[in-house]
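Allow me, if you will, to draw on your knowledge of protein folds for a short while. I am sending you one protein, given as its amino acid sequence and as whole-number tokens for its backbone shapes. Kindly check, if you would, that the fold set down in the tokens agrees with what the sequence suggests. The record follows directly beneath this note:
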Amino acid sequence: MLNSRQQEILKLLGEQPFLKTSELEESLRLTRARINQLIVPLIRKKLVRREGRARATIYQLTDKRSNDTLRRENWELRRRVLELEKVLDDRKMIERAKEILIAQFDILPTDAYRKLQEQSMDSGRPLRDIAQRILSAYEH
């Protein structure tokens, strides 16, 4: 995965056909050493091509980024979205179960959550499963 600064470099290179190190320094407000630290992994991944030496060095995007990397980044983003959706669904289910416990036993939200946690630990089941059982018992 690329960090935000590396993504900025790729974006800048996508907007212009090539950039000198000094132009990257100015645009990103980073030192030459930091630019080099950020750009070397991009060169190794064949996302960026370096031409020239020392102060005459210029950088430009390679064609490889268009297919392989974008596909990989898209897959990674889709996977992350699915993970976050599952976490959100779990959280919603736990909150609904908490509301049922609050209404049923007239307890505070923190106490309801603690009851869910205790039940989860005692039974060795995930909190999501405990919440699901409560929902299925009280929503029918």
Notes: The domain at 4-66 is CATH 1.10.10.10 (Arc Repressor Mutant, subunit A). The chain has a mean pLDDT of 89. DSSP finds six helices and three strands in the chain.
